[in-house]
Amino acid sequence: MMTLTTVSEQLSSIQSRVFWRVGTQRKGILNVTLDFESNDSALLCELCAIRYLLLEKQVFGRVPGTGIGYKLVVSKGAIKKLARGRSDKKCAQKFSAFLQSRLAGVQIEVSTKTEYMANIEEEATELLLAERKRYAGTFDAIETPAMGTVLVTAHAVSRYSERITSGKPKAPWLSLVKRIQNPELRIYPLAERERRRKAQKYGTADNIEEWGHPSSELYFLVLNDQGIRTLVTIYER
Q1: All domains of the chain in start order, with CATH
Q2: What is the dihedral of CA 17, 121, 72, 33, to 10 degrees?
């Protein structure tokens, strides 16, 4: 089990200090600064620190594509509730979306113990600017050979997990990403009925694309906004 432990201390309405460690030897301190004020800055900064450490700094030597096999020990109990979709902290829901999609299945424990953490008087502090537009994004930008860059939303991952009939994948985000990275995907004409429905929902269907694989009954509905593709939903037929 790969375990990341974090403890967040609020410094102001925009800044918190986050101590982190992996095991007992690898550790550090992040000074996380938000680009907006919040009474829950300690919570938001801890979420941003976790996302940064896992997906950007890659403290485990890889970028996780699932939460299975990973464990987070966090100092804010709201993080555990957010990952389960049971928190009323609306300000933090988008910041925690990655815990329900990309890291679905991650184990979370709550502890404020600072044992084995870095000493602030001895360890250099790393600065992290946590911009809302970057850390509150509910999507991952995935490079694909057929469609180019595709934004995969938490909603799309949820729909994929619900609708695939070949068996619910253990790692939904990773499974979906592998499917859209298939180089043999091709675009299909949108059925007239579907075109009318999407025109009613989005105002136009001219920027809606349907992608699929010749040997599969699974289709990907994509919104193409001037070359920026967003995976909207997935269905079988």
Answers
A1: 2-135 (3.30.420), 139-236 (3.30.2310)
A2: 20
